[in-house]
């Protein structure tokens, strides 16, 4: 395997941009290298990090074959069974800190990253990410996706000062985790379209530089997916690059706009468990992969219309919200108090409909994506995630209700049937 000591030149994304903003990044170093963990102390010195470090594992990552345990002032090993990104669970872990660390190191996947990121943010100390899988794009992000009072929230917190990715460890990960990472990045087909459409109809802030980063990550992962489809070995270095690049888009924007659209909300619903999702389960990438399929089908169905008629804004039906979300309903009402659908005239959708159709055309069809996911062994049905097929018809309404972000899925509330 070729050794790569710096997979991202972060400097080229910084500074004044044509979008009018001056972009910055907290992450100083991104390493993707065979044997990287044997040189961990050197990388920390390169980043100016020293002192008492608390290293967080779960019981799965702690016992990974071949994993080099970096020296630590304290190791915390969390029970992997039932572990999820929940505010109370993270704060309970923090009570086990022997002392306030000089910095926190999280070793594992996306959930462990949220434990490290949140605790570092809460304590005002640096955070270092050590991925053991390439199953999501959160390693270079500054977004913490956690459950607060039963509702999934994506909150800007703190990016890692360094990301140290040992390719020897990554290579030993089960294939289903790698496939979930493929789906997480291929979801950018929807998130990029949603962002462009929102900018078109509402004038929402848009940065071409950041969009190009997300598109580059998508293009790389699409190539990797088709190589898997052809029976080739996974290009783990390219996959890791795509994940890190996508995460940096979130750090630059301090939100997940370029990397997360309507398709990502499936993952939130699986954790929130409203009506029809009571038995839902699945990895983040698997969930957004199915969400991508659902959105692709709905968006292409919309695009069959040569023109659309719109209707005035109306708030979510409160009885419907209570019926679907039950005890979570009050959180949904609060999330939708200042509905983004009120930030532009519905006629803007009509005015730009042909351009919207053109953007949808850049998304592969449901049939293409479904066939690809099936061929590479990716989850691609609601049933595989334990989601009731009965929610299919109301899927976009349910998913778009949980986040007040302007997506084409949310805009369907302004389009006449």
Shape: globular
Tell me about the biggest sheet? 6 strands, parallel
Output the strand order for the largest sheet: 3-10-7-6-4-5
H/I helix tally: 18
| Uncertain runs | 1-6
Question: End-to-end distance, in Å?
Answer: 54 Å
Count of β-strands: 10
Task: Give the rounded overall mean pLDDT.
Answer: 92
Radius of gyration over alpha carbons? Answer: 21 Å
Order of helices and strands: EEEHEHEHEHEEEEHHHHHHHHHHHHHH
Proportion in helices:
40-55%
Strand content: 5-15%
Question: Which class do the helix and strand fractions yield?
Answer: alpha/beta
Q: What would your notes on this structure say?
A:
With 417 residues, the chain is of the alpha/beta class. The chain is built from 18 helices and 10 strands. It has helices spanning 40-46, 59-62, 87-94, 110-123, 167-170, 175-186, 188-202, 208-229, 236-253, 265-272, 284-303, 318-325, 329-335, 347-351, 353-361, 366-376, 395-401, 408-411; strands spanning 15-16, 22-23, 29-33, 53-58, 74-78, 103-108, 127-131, 143-148, 151-156, 162-166. The strands form 3 sheets. Strands 3-10-7-6-4-5 form a 6-stranded parallel beta sheet, sandwiched between helices. Strands 1-2 form a two-stranded antiparallel sheet. A hairpin with a 5-residue loop joins β1 (15-16) and β2 (22-23). The chain is globular, with a radius of gyration of 21 Å. The protein starts with 14 loop residues before the first strand and ends in a 6-residue tail after the last helix.
């Amino acid at each position: 395997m070729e050794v790569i000591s710096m997979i991202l030149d972060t400097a080229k994304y910084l500074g004044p941009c044509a979008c009018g903003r001056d972009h910055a990044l907290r992450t100083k170093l991104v390493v993707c290298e065979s044997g990287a963990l044997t040189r961990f102390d050197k990388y920390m010195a390169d980043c100016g990090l020293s002192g008492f470090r608390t290293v967080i594992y779960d019981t799965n990552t702690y016992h990974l074959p071949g994993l080099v345990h970096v020296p630590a002032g304290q190791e915390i090993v969390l029970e992997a069974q039932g572990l999820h990104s929940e505010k109370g669970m993270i704060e309970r872990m923090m009570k086990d800190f022997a002392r306030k660390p000089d910095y926190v190191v999280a070793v594992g996947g996306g959930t462990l990253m949220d434990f490290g990121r949140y605790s570092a943010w809460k304590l005002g100390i640096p955070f270092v990410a050590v991925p053991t899988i390439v199953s999501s794009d959160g390693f270079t992000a500054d977004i913490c996706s956690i459950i607060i009072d039963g509702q999934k929230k994506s909150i800007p917190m703190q990016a890692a000062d360094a990301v140290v990715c040992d390719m020897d460890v990554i290579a030993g990960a089960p294939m289903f985790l790698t496939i979930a990472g493929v789906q997480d990045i291929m979801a950018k087909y929807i998130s990029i379209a949603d962002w462009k459409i929102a900018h078109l109809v509402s004038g929402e802030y848009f940065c071409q530089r950041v969009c190009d980063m997300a598109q580059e990550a998508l293009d790389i992962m699409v190539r990797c997916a088709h190589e898997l489809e052809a029976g080739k070995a996974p290009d783990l270095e390219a996959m890791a690059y795509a994940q890190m690049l996508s995460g940096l888009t979130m750090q630059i924007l301090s939100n997940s706009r370029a990397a997360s659209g309507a398709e990502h909300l499936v993952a939130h619903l699986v954790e929130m468990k409203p009506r029809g999702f009571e038995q839902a389960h699945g990895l983040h990438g698997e969930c957004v992969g199915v969400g991508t399929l659902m959105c692709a089908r709905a968006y292409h169905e919309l695009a069959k219309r040569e023109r659309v008629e719109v209707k005035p804004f109306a708030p979510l039906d409160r009885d419907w919200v209570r019926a679907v979300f039950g005890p979570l309903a009050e959180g949904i009402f609060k999330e939708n108090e200042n509905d983004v659908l009120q930030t532009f005239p519905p006629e803007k959708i009509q005015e730009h409909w042909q351009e919207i159709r053109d953007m949808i055309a850049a998304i592969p069809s449901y049939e293409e994506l479904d066939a690809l996911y099936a061929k590479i062994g990716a989850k691609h049905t609601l049933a595989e995630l334990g989601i009731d097929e009965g929610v299919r018809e109301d899927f976009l309404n349910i998913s778009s209700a949980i986040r007040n972000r302007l997506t084409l899925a949310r805009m369907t509330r302004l389009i006449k049937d």
